[in-house]
Amino acid sequence: MKHTFTLTVNGRNYEREVEPRLLLSDFLRHDLGLTGTHVGCEHGVCGACTVLLDGEAVRSCLLFAVQASGREVETVESLDSGPQNLHPLQHGFWEAHGLQCGYCTPGILMSLVPFLRENPNPTESEIRDLLSGNICRCTGYQKIVEAVQLGAELIQEKST
Amino acid sequence: MKPAVFDYHAPRTVDEALGLLAQYGGDAKPLAGGQSLVPTMNFRLAQPAALVDLNGIDELFYLRQGEGGLRCGAMTRQRSVENSTLAQRLSPLLHEAMPHIAHTQIRNRGTIGGSLAHADPAAELPALALALDARFYVRSLTDGRWIAARDYYTGLFTTAMQPEEMLVEAVFPALPAGSGWAFDEVARQHGNYALCGAAAIITQGEDGLVKNAKLVFLSVGEGPVEAFQAANMLVGERPTPEAVRAAADTAATQEIDPVGDIHAGPAFRRHLARVVAQRVLTRAAARASAEVSV
After folding, report:
1. Residue in chain A lying closest to B101 (CA)
2. Which parts of chain A sit beneath pLDDT 70?
3. In which domain, by residue range, is A96 found?
């Protein structure tokens, strides 16, 4: 049986009718066309599908879309308004080469947004601890750590 | 990699949820944080006829000081315990162990009750509950009962609960005066399933002798495994490095029977158990001594 529900995604309200078994990750990609959220392992291990639910980083492959009823979801598409207007964190990743193939990047960025909000000056070990929830098979993480450090600086510069 | 069809219910009260569980007679599953249930549904290892989503039941989200210690509503997120100064004060062992449970993104959803009831032998919470002598309040539509953690875990992913029952509260008692505690685990990467982990509690008298000791392992059996013999070896003794080493050795060689998997064979797991037991007993004893000397 299909369920009708409403939710907010990146500030826009939607009403949709879905099967309960539809994962939030698939709902975002297929129903809303927001393909920035990537799907990797579909069992919560890789972190590629990480989005914000009411401001907290969660795995969208471990949530059913109907569970976001009445809630606010933010995806990587919420960060910027085009290549000329990157979010400071994205700018950090671009500048410091924090990605190679880029598949894991949206999940990493969405994990980092609330992390840097709570802890604007993280240590390298705190960054690595946070990144343990996102798998990257290209970079070896070194450049990602540097990108996070640069991104954190840029966020602070922008806010002062 | 997509779940099979199921009926979805989002009750607002515990009674409503229990009514639904009774109505489906064991074919429905309560959905807590979903961090273990949804992966098994995505793999179609689990195909429940219905899900009873507990995320909208406000009365299950709380963390408070009450009779018996720290009282924890079943839907309290692991992240809430991690960030709670009340939990840190009332149950420092529980609080210290939280960051070992998977990753931040998982703990944002994962719940105390969900992990306790899932009874994964590699999970931290069942071992912590056993070490802390936690008690669980379990309800069905017609009945409610308390189950001690030591009676709750009955085997691999199996508990003493009936299909129509639901865990609604966990109580973690405060430790007696003169107690020290520690938790540690070894995983291939921080946040992965532990290859072996252990929680220890040591209570010392004013004379410096151990009055009570507890050692509980995870990931070395079909559920959390308490090492009674090792703990008894320490009672009445000073927790010297030699005594701790002997206890850890007994626990690892005589009280566990680990199986192997692709990450660690039985011999390696036994080795890790000895190492982790020694670490947590040493740290717990040091904390207990500091408590007593204050």
Report:
1. A133
2. none
3. 88-159
